[in-house]
Amino acid sequence: QMCEKFTVCENSMEMLVRNNLNLPKVTEEDGDFLTFLSFQDKCLRKISSGLYTFTTYLEYIKETFTSEKQNIESLCYSTEHLARTVRQMVINPEEVTIPDSATQKSLRTKLKSNKTWIEKITTHLILRDFTSFMEKTVRAVRYLKNTRSFSV
Question: Which residues form the signal peptide (predicted)?
Fold first, then answer.
């Protein structure tokens, strides 16, 4: 929808220049995905921490992508609920990184721009990376569910 409504597409040069958001993701530093998943607790901590971080980014989108405010509100609620649920599965839930309110406020301020096209690109990047993160989360949960005595 972003591409159609705002002509913000994957191959846009502005997107490549602007992509300094440091969004949560599973990277090569985490090792091979299956190896990464073999450490169930570490995996769940990373997923929960990532989801909590994404809630801040999704709040920013709710403020800027007003035409989809109701959908984004639902996405924010669902993401935070999932983050809490996964956090409860971690052996030591206090080890899950949750951004404090000052960090969240600082990030939202940093994301704001007086240029609409930058906001659109930022929104697109956040949603793209959130989709990728959720795809890996689903794979991780399926893997954990199928290989462990793990219930979701």
Answer: none
